[in-house]
Amino acid sequence: MGVAPALLATLAAGGRVTRLALDLIFPPRCVGCGEFETLLCEVCRADLKPLAEGCRRCGRPDMVSTHHGWCRDCVGRRLGFASAGSAFAYEGVAQELVVALKYGGQKQVAEPMAEAAADVFRRCLARPGLPIVTWVPSHPAVTRERGYNQAEVLARALACRSEVEHVMPLARKVKRTAHQQALSREERAENLAGAFVGFESPVSFGDEAWVLLVDDVFTTGATSSEVASAITARSGLEVHVFTFARALGEVPCFTD
């Protein structure tokens, strides 16, 4: 028997009791295998593929360093961020988690994603100074359609687990861009040009502050670079990037 829309609307207005009630009607299922009572079972979590350390700039693993620990791809390339790191390879269960969060309306998946990636996230936080956690913004129209910005939900879940004090938006997306899936690196950069605008933090943090920018997937770095440039241009803060997953080859890329 279907659940009446009025009942769903009533449940959606509640808090913890609502979550429990919804779980009774729609029991959680593992994103990877479909097992009941969990969003990410231990077997599927074990299938996540951690990334080895790599390029000190873009974070790509298993690359031969050619200059200050950079990979050949980074030499001579202009990027808006100082460094980037990711927790897992964007394949298998990691890809299913990202798609469920971004396109499946499964906002709650951010919690097991944050739990799985917490150790790598904390390593990214472990640099001198005061970290400010922010996220890649979606266009307002996309946020309305989706009901949330998946990067923000993930960033807040990660920051909460690591007890980060300063978590806030530092940029907004002012241009709705085309999907980047079939675009080359140059076309991606052109597609994103002028899409983001940074704004000053409501609090002055001083010279010791820096930014950790969170997103779901790192592919070419074009999106992260544009957002980082916008943040630095307005605030003067150095930006580092953390993503849940990293595309290592010809892997589908989904962006706003």
Please explain how this structure is put together:
The structure is a single chain. The protein is of the alpha/beta class. It contains nine helices and nine strands. A five-stranded parallel beta sheet has the order 3-9-8-4-5. It has a two-stranded antiparallel ribbon with strand order 1-2. Helix 5 crosses helix 7 (about 150-160). The longest helix is centred in the middle third of the chain and has 16 residues, at about 110-125. It is globular, with a radius of gyration of 19 Å. The chain starts with a helix and ends in a 10-residue tail after the last strand.
Strand order of the largest sheet: 3-9-8-4-5
* N- and C-termini, Cα separation: 36 Å
Mean pLDDT: 85
Shape: globular
What fraction strand?
15-25%
User: SS-based structural class?
Assistant: alpha/beta
Number of β-strand runs: 9
Spell out the helices and strands N to C: HHHEEEHHEHHEEHEEHE
Largest sheet: 5 strands, parallel
**Helix residue percentage:** 25-40%
Q: How large is the radius of gyration?
A: 19 Å
